[in-house]
Protein 1
Amino acid sequence: MDLGLKGKVALITGSSKGIGLETALQLLKEGVEVTICARNEDRLKEAAAFLFEQTGKEVLVVVTDVTQEDQCKNVVEATIEKYGRLDILVNNAGTVQAFTFEKVETELWRQDLDLKLFGAIHCARYAVPYMRQVGGGAIVNVTAISGKTPPATSLPTSVSRAAGMALTKAMSKDLGPDNIRVNTVCIGLIRSEQIEKMWKNQAPELSWEEFSQKDRQIPLGRIGNTDEAAKVITFLVSDAASYVTGTSVNIDGGVAGTL
Ligand SMILES: NC(=O)c1ccc[n+]([C@@H]2O[C@H](COP(=O)([O-])OP(=O)(O)OC[C@H]3O[C@@H](n4cnc5c(N)ncnc54)[C@H](OP(=O)(O)O)[C@@H]3O)[C@@H](O)[C@H]2O)c1
């Protein structure tokens, strides 16, 4: 199937590792020009070298903290300066913050919303006008299934993620007439550095396979891999999903609702 992505330009936030890096790889393989960004410059350079090794293609690297609106503006404008257009935005930057209610101080609520909600808002604010200029675009907000089915220990992240889903829905209605599609993916458990840390902290005595398959009520029986998330994101930003907007797709091995 031709995904119709060749020649398009994508900005992926939080793309120095994990799901963001894998999404960059998948999009490069489809002929997309890519900007990667995150805060740590060394990790970004390593990511760019990895992507070059895998695809023979250079990416634009822009050190960016998405909690800072001026830096979101800067990464969008750097992308336009380099590639002349912007078709795709993947708002992926994020970290796990999962506690019970009384353990979360006000400052942490603010930090989490700054990262997961305002980061996406700022990037979209500057990207949307450029998408209009090229007759449309696609935005994917990477969130978590805890936004739909929040466990007791999921604060503040599940609240920030639920807000991200409402943002997606409202923006899809607002921007549909401009042919800008906005969708969410809701991640369950995907093997990335943050999950590997959880493995080392919780059960270092287990092999990865044992840890991955440990009973977590995941119908598919294991933790997912980054390419299994990145391929869904790639589909959603592609022309193959040209009639898909305002929806959320769980990438969770079927676990949502069983938690
Ligand atoms: N993996 C899972 O099981 C899982 C589950 C639920 C939701 N998610 C969500 O899915 C997304 C990707 O997860 P992942 O597991 O691939 O994460 P990861 O491996 O920890 O990577 C997170 C990326 O975000 C960047 N980042 C963090 N804070 C940032 C900021 N303020 N500005 C810009 N970049 C920032 C990190 O780089 P720097 O630190 O250098 O900035 C890194 O590139 C995240 O939003 C995460 O919350 C993942």
Protein 2
Amino acid sequence: MCVYFVLLKMLKTTNKNVFRVVRELNENVKHLGKGYTFHNKLRPSNNRCNFRLYTANFASAVPAIKRIESFKPGQQIHGFTVQKIVEVPELYLSAVKLSHDATGAELLHVARDDCNNVFSVAFRTTPMDSTGVSHILEHTTLCGSEKYPCRDPFFKMLNRSLSTFMNAFTGSDYTAYPFSTQNSTDFSNLMSVYLDATFFPKLQQQDFRQEGWRLENENNQDSTSPIIFKGVVYNEMKGAMASSDSLFAMHSQNKLLPNHTYSHNSGGDPSCIPDLTWQQLKQFHASHYHPSNARFYTYGDLPLEDNLRQINEQVLSRFGKIQPDTTVPDEPRWTEPREAEVYCAVDPMAADPNKQTTISVSYLLASITDPFESFTASVLGSLLVSGPTSPFYKALIEANIGSDYAPNVGYDTSTKEASFSIGLQGIANENVAKVKEIIKKTFQQVVKEGFEDQRIEAILHKIELSQKHQTTSFGLGLMMALLPSWNHGSDPTDQLKINEIVTAFKRSLEENPALLQEKVKEYFLNNPHHLTLVMKPQEDYQQNLDDLEIKKTNDFSSNLSVEDKKKIFEDGIQLASEQSKVDDPSCLPTLAISDVDRNIMRTTIDYQILNGVSVQQCIQPTNGVVYFNAITSLHTLPNDLLIYVPLFSSVITQMGAGNMSFHEISQQEDLKTGGLGVHTHICQHPDSIHKVEKGIMLSSYCLDNNTEEMFKLWHDIFLRPKLEDVDRFTTLVRMNASDLAMSLSNSGHSYAMSAAQSHLSPVSHFNEILGGMKQVMFLKSIAELKDLNPVLQKLQQVASHVLCTENMRCALNASPIFMDTASLHLERFLSQLPGDGAGQTSFMQENPFTTTKQKLHYELPFPVNYISHAIEGIPFNHEDFASLRLLARLMSTKFLHREIREKGGAYGSGALMGTSGNFTFYSYRDPNSEKTLDAFKKCCEWAVDASYLDQDIDEAKLSVFSSVDSPTAPSSKGMRHFKNHVSDDVYQNHRQQLLGVTRDDMVRVAKSYLVNGDKMNGTALLGPDNEMTKNEHSWIIHKEE
Ligand SMILES: [Zn+2]
């Protein structure tokens, strides 16, 4: 894989399920699904990090890179030898590759003038079964180590650090442990904990039992209750396998590469997980987590020498060299293509129950370790499937026989030899043959006709734009891009030289204009190593899995003697008591509250009225990129049209406009911009729960010299949107509905949170309509309609309310030399729009609202639950907001994590005080329901008892500040004010309140809001058929037939 591939992904995220994100990050839940805007209201963003990347003369102005000049190949330093130094001016970085003399460990340092420093250590992990050994090991290494023997140091460090990212991933063939932080002491602290965890973990049996699997009484206090399987990974994988997206992608990889490690489920198949023993886990650690099988990565502006010294002293000096037996052999190539059929659960959310089949054809390609081949294949992959102008979009998506591409579609580098897949989901069984035929014909047609030059140009434009567009996660993204091929022995610095690769690609194409057509023949038409995979829904699929689990349980328990059962019960009691013990984290390093800055870094914002419209201008070092945002209000929109707004937002840039067809506008977007985005926008006034702004937000960015063209595209969309083409609309509706339905199993908790809050405040009510289960149900009903013309008419009505300057405000972020020009272009654009731009004085409107108490159960065929309970709250600017926010953090780490994850076996849980003003609890992939609701209640009592330590309060503060102070890219500066009406003064006030919160404050708010208060509350559950909700009449059960 080549770096550019991930850069492109950063531009337009397509969420292919490559990693299981194992740890929840900081305060914000990272799995929040799209359409759910709760956290986006106030994504805490501040300015700790100053990007200084705009300077053209990078080498003389950038200290981090300058320091690298003193290193020379062959130089020895702290046990390492410098092998290579590579300058990459196009990415504003210099890279140093080193190897450790005694162990053979490799280290890549990327020096860049970015203070969001990254560390990662990764191991090649190639399990040869589906017991989930690499995944369970990843969990258990984080449960305590030699130097840090406390329970769960990883989670504890979340509260003792100002990290901007902490996580661990298990991929198909590697396990990676990355973090990032802007603070140098913190960097050293976290590195110490990560190094000790991965190389010297305790791997105790109780950790294996808690994180992996165990047999235990269903009720661990009752020896007569049935004996069942429990364990965090066990439940996590039950949840993961319930997502038909992941299931399909997994089968496709397993069956295309059946000869070695890729034929297994590296996350763990719940039916195989109980075959893993503790001994095997320890053995896997010894053979895989060794320096000789490790790759270290450091990134940012901290000195390389310090990193090398610490890694050598703490770890590498204690090891010798081994020959790790982890090489993945090339897959023996097939002489004949293969076919396979697999099954999944019936999806009650499918718009058409008779169209639930998925088919794809996957081709095995060349090794990902060849940068040029990999680049060519990824460009070819984009040309074939990306966007409406691609041949497969036209042939498959526009055929309107499926709901969307199959989940594995595109070029995939998550295995040593790359693959490319093409196919459809949401088709009728009888159309399988038709899809296969279309795929073959389309390849043949491409060989005959080739690709338009403009499309290749658009891809090269994207690469250029991605190099200039700055993101705060660049260092992390770079690591993720380099690791797959580095993991198999390639030189990571080869992948960094984007310009060289692009130049070589252009040259090859000039020399041989038929290059890509020849590649299509070689990769696809003449490649016998391809797999046709069909997945069909099966009525009793989940029942069969349940039966299998029962059978497996019986197999284990039928051999149990009375003594064994007694032991199981005692072990259960023992584990629970270990989990309940107060643990001493004092062995762990920590930052202090004094390390937190007292003041926010303020952003200078200017205002202008252009053509009657208020325009916020923020001058930033944007590297020659201009960022445009606009919000247009929905206040004149009749209530019954509100539910159509997400659909409107999703399709309005994709239907064609002006003289352009939807193909042409998509082409222009790719050639001139980083894409045009339209999203629903809801915001609650910082001072009042009843004041709400509803609108849509338009966003786009482009290279400075394309600004006029960018506004021309918006101009056509505003003045002449084509909301008539019903065939095109049908395609988009299907894709949207299928996307939303798929998001349920991955983001069930965010839907549960939205539903639980929906009766508590106006903003939550609107959030539910625009992005909650209400919207999911609505879109499903639309997708079921025979005639979509009436819906198109509704969207036209929406357009007439929002596509004008009447209720609009704009924001520009641009570099100092370009702001004036950008403003002129914007003014010209605004002058051509309808409306007099009267510029409302306030965008907020009063919304009379009566809160009601509700308990909702959305019955869905998941093997696990997503539960939320919410309590009516207060606006952001309220004096108690900071106390509640800290309390939520404290509850998450000190109570809910232990009760719901460790004891209950759920994958995740927490409490949040979001800017919708409600106090909300949630659980994620949870085997329990009643017990979890009970834990939420007990958690409130625990908060009133306040038996926690003062140190715990400081930790909650650090943890909150690690998200409050997360870095902000130049494109996002000033956006907190623009979107949420939170000024720097208001934000500074919140910061001071957070710093000043005391134990008494937290007890007081716990009492008055959560326990004794007269506050309204709501509860929601997404999950299977449930005795509790059936028996208690207060529950309203929604069930899709
Ligand atoms: Zn996991």
Protein 3
Amino acid sequence: MEAGLKRDQERKRTIDIIDLTRRLEDSMAVFSGHPPVSITRHLTAGKDGRNVEKISMGGHTGTHVDVPYHFIDKGFSSENISLPSICGAVVLVNIAFKDGKPITVKDIQGKKEKIKTLKKLVVHAHWQQTGQSYYKDYPTLSVDACEWLCDLNIEMLGMDTPSPGPFGQKGDEIHKRLLRENIYIIEGLTNLDRIKEDTFLLVCLPLSIKAMGGVPCRAIAITSI
Ligand SMILES: [Zn+2]
């Protein structure tokens, strides 16, 4: 291991963090129709005295936050994201692997009181596919489960899948329903299996970019300080 990295990893820690973010890398798989991810060298240390990279990708790449403007022209966009709505104590809802079947009210109603109190939930659907398979046949919310969450007046829904709805028009309707209620959607979370409690402290920080319908973020769970 490189000495500087080793020294960093041996530093004394005063906080336990679980990183819930998918790593961005050149040519990684993306949703059908979204821009490809390109991370290339713009300047090189050998020739230019420094390494500087150039990134090109869509707003809905990797772990990211969807805001109303994604589907609603008059909805608010990324610069208006309210961090207290996507950070704080959240309910973790563990769902047994659904194998293509939608997530129903029955799967989540056991946490109703906690969801009503905290207004933020993260659904752990145990979706572990990688590459292009990540975007195919992932577990999605049923229309009833989506309505049920809207009726509870939630502020934020996080998921370990690429979208709360299936690819295509049905999924668009689920998105629109949530975004019309100004519910933030965090898509593409990972490492949820490492969270042992059924509520946890989430810190989700989308990049501060103007006029976007979805913004890549770093999302972490703070498990002790
Ligand atoms: Zn999105």
